[in-house]
User: Fold these one by one.
Assistant:
Number 1:
Amino acid sequence: MRQPQRSWPAIALATLLAAAGAHARDQAQSNDDSAVGKAVAARQASEIKSGDPARWHREDLSRQARLRILQKEIGAAWQEAKNACREGAAAERNACLKEARATYEQDMKNAPAQLDAAPKGSVETSVQTTTAATPPSR
C-alpha cells in the first residue's frame, strides 16, 4: 500500500507549529527568578520573610469603606450581566444591555440605603438572573 505524499505547505506548517510549541514550552520553564537582579531578589526575599503588611489584615468597616465594597460588587455584577447579554441572541442584546444598565443604576442609587438597612459589616444582596426565552415546544 502506497503512502500518500504530503504537500510542502502542510509539512512546513507542521514544522512551524512544532517549533512554536517547543518555544512556548521553553518560555514556560524559564519563568523563574533567574532574570531578576541580585539586589531585587534579596529585597523580595526580605519582604517575603517579614510577611504581609499589617494593613492587609485590618478591616476597615467604616460606612465609607463598606459603601466602596458594595459599589465594587455592584460594578462586578453589572460586568457579568453585560457579558451574559453579549453571549445571548443578537436580536435581544440591546434590550438586555439596557436592562442591565438600569439595574446597575438602580443598585448604585439604592446602595446607601441598603447599607443603612443592613447590620454593621454585612449587606444582603439579591441576584437577578436573565435567561433567554425558550420557544414553546410543538
Note: The mean pLDDT is 78.
Number 2:
Amino acid sequence: MVVVVVGGCAWAGVNASLGSGVRMRGEVTGAAHCAEVRERARANPGLDVEKLPTPIRQPSRLLAGPFPPGVIRNGYADVHTTVVVDTLGKPVMKTFKVKKASDPWLGQDVKKTLARWTFSPAELEGCKVARVYKVDATSGSK
C-alpha cells in the first residue's frame, strides 16, 4: 500500500483583488505587478500563496516498486522530499531535496518519478509563481 501526503499552506494576503478589478495596493498593476510578485516568491519559495502547485500529469506513481532488497524494513518505508515547481508547472530538479528517507534508494526513486510530473503552478495575487512542493510517501505501516 502506498500513501502519498502532500503538504502546504495557502493564505489570502492583504493584496487580494477587490470585486471591481481594483487592487488594494494600487502602485503596480498588470505585468509590473506580476513581476514584483514573482520576485517576492523567488526570494522566498515557501511564501504563503492562494493556490499551491497541484499535480495535473503523473505518468507514474511514487514508490511504485519493485523495491530492491532491504528497502522495505519490517514492512515499512517512507521518504520526505521537497522540490520547487516553476511558473510553467515544471519541477526544478536542481532544487530537489530529500528531507528524510528510511533508505537512500527511496529519495532517488521519488526524484526520477517527480521529474516526469507536470503541475498547475502556484498562484499569488493572480500571478503564477514558483513555489516549494512537499512530497511525503509511505509504503506499509509501522
Note: Residues 30 and 127 are 9 Å apart (CA to CA).
